[in-house]
Amino acid sequence: MTTTIDVLGLREIFEQRRILMCFNGPFSASLIEEIGLALRHHLENVAASPSAVMDVFSVYIEMTQNIRHYVRENGLPDELTRATVVISQREDGHYLVSAGNKLLPADGERLLQRVRELASMDKAALKAAYKEQMRQPRDPAATTGAGLGLIDMARRSSEPLAASLQVLPDAMAFFSLEVVI
Amino acid sequence: MTFFAYNQPASRPQTSTAAADLQREGISMQDLNIIATTSSPAIATDWNEGRVILAGDSYPENAFELFQPLLDWVSAYLAQAGQPLRLELSLLYLNTSSIRIMMDLFDQLEVAHQAGKSVRLQWFYDARNERVADLAEEFREDCTFPFDIIAEERA
Q1: Interchain CB contacts (distance < 8 Å): A and B
Q2: CATH: 3.30.750, 1.10.260, 3.30.160, 2.40.10. Which one for B15-152?
Q3: ipTM of the complex
Q4: For residue A61, which residues of chain B lie inside 8 Å, CB to CB?
C-alpha cells in the first residue's frame, strides 16, 4: 500500500529549496488577498524585518495582480490566471519571490525584453524610469498600475531581475520571473 | 454631516454625477465615509472641518474605481470650499495602482497650493517601517505644499 502522491518527495524539495509557501492554480482577486495575508503573518512570525516583509509582500502582490491584469486586458480565457507562485529563502537569508504563468509567445518575448532592460539599470536609472512612468497620462480604460509594477519590483530587488521564457507544447509560452529581496 | 458607506462597489457609485450637480448648485458635497477592507483603506472626508483621512493598506486590483469618489470630492472642495484642506494619511502598504492614484491626488493639492490655497498633508507611519517613509519621501520630492512625514513609536 503506497500513497499516490509522493508527499515525502515533495517535502524534500520544499526543505531543500527552503520554500516557505507555494501555490499553483487560478488566482482570483480574493485568493491573492488571502494568500497575501498568510504570507505577511508568516513572515512577521519568523521575525523578518518590517522592510523585508513589505518588500516580499509587495512583489508578490504586483506579480499576481500583473498576471490577472494581463488576462483581463487582453480578453484572454480565465484559465490563464492559473499561475505558480513560490516564496522561498536562500541560504544567505535573502527571500526569493518567483512566479510563472502561461502567455502568448509574442507577449512573453516583449516582457522578457522589458525585464532585460530593467535588469541592466542601476537604482538611479530605475527611479528615473519609475517617475517617468508615473507621469504617463493614465488611460481611463486601463485598470493597472500603468506599467509601474515591473519597475517597482526591480527597485525592490537586491539583485537584477531574472526571467526566462519556455515554449510549451500547446504553442503557448511559460514566463518565469524571480525577484531577490 | 451626512454619511454613506460602501465596500468596493462592482460599478462606480453615482458620486461623479452627483458631484457635478452639487457643484452647479453651489452646495457642499456629501462627505465620504468608506469602510476599510483587507485591501482598501478607510476613506473619510469632512467638508466642514476641511479634512480627509485615509488609513490602512491599499492594494485593490482597481484603485481607480476605489479612489475616484475621493478625487471628485477633493476637486469639488478645492474649487468651492474657500477654506484650508488637510490630509491625514496613515497608509501602510500601497500597490502601484494606488500609488498612481495618490500622485493624481497630490497633483490636485499642488495645483491648489500654486493658486494660493491652503493645503497641508501629514503622513503618519510606524517608525520601524522605513519603506513607508521612503514612499512618502519620494512623493514629497514632487510637492511644494506643506508635507509632513511623521514617525510614530508604536508598541
Answers
A1: 65
A2: 3.30.750
A3: 0.89
A4: 59, 95
